[in-house]
Amino acid sequence: MLQTGITPDFITVDGGEGGTGAAPPEFSDRVGMPLLQGLSMTHALLVGAGLRDRVKIIASGKILTGFSIVEAMAIGADVTNSARAMLFALGCIQALKCNTNKCPTGITTLDPRLMNGLVVPDKAERVYRYHQKTVHVALEIIGALGLDSPNLVRPEHIMNTGDYGEILTLSKVYPHLNIQSGALLENQGEASVLKLWNAARV
């Protein structure tokens, strides 16, 4: 990207917490990085490379609540998307039969008998209301932080519990978020980010 000047419009960071009932259990349980770790590292690498203003970041992976939207935005997401939460709003009961054509709720099946369980007008209203309420709660949280725009949320606004029960801001939990724009080009920055940066350049 630096050499060609060509960048993607966006990068989607999909955390390992997400997934489908069709995934093998080992993949669901053991493969992938948690969203917040992957998101914070992606944001830090783009900032450090001086490219963050040119590439949007979309966060996905168990974005279920208004707070999870705000937390992802604090760590660097420009946009969030959600699949699992919308499936829950549709009536998913996590039967783990997504790939069998035997979904008992009718969501992931082509069996006409089972599809009758998915009453589209009813479910559409549920999904709409869930989405509307979730966004409303996210905006309420942003307002409670004293901010008037989602793009003003920063890691310092969100507190988390550390390994030993101490209360930390997300900027302390993820210190690599404090990187300065272009720092990696000068071989500067937090050690974990520099390690990834140098590994990618080999």
Features:
Glutamate synthase domain-containing protein; 40% helix; Glu_synthdom; two-stranded antiparallel sheet; mainly alpha; glutamate synthase activity; 202 residues; 8 helices
How would the blueprint of this fold be written?
Elements: E1 10-14, H1 25-30, H2 35-48, E2 56-60, H3 66-75, E3 79-80, H4 84-90, H5 112-115, H6 120-144, E4 159-161, E5 167-169, H7 170-173, H8 191-201
Parallel strand pairs: 1-2, 2-3
Antiparallel strand pairs: 4-5
State the total count of DSSP E strands: 5
Helix content: 40-55%
- Uncertain regions spanning at least 5 consecutive residues: none
- How confident is the prediction overall: mean pLDDT? 91
Q: What value does the Rg take, in angstroms?
A: 20 Å
Class from helix and strand fractions: mainly alpha
The ordered string of helix (H) and strand (E) elements is EHHEHEHHHEEHH
Count of discrete domains: 1
**Major sheet: order of its strands?**
1-2-3
The largest β sheet comes out as: 3 strands, parallel
In DSSP terms (H or I, runs of 4 or more residues), the helix count works out at 8
Distance between the termini: 15 Å
Shape: globular
Percent range for β-strand residues: 5-15%
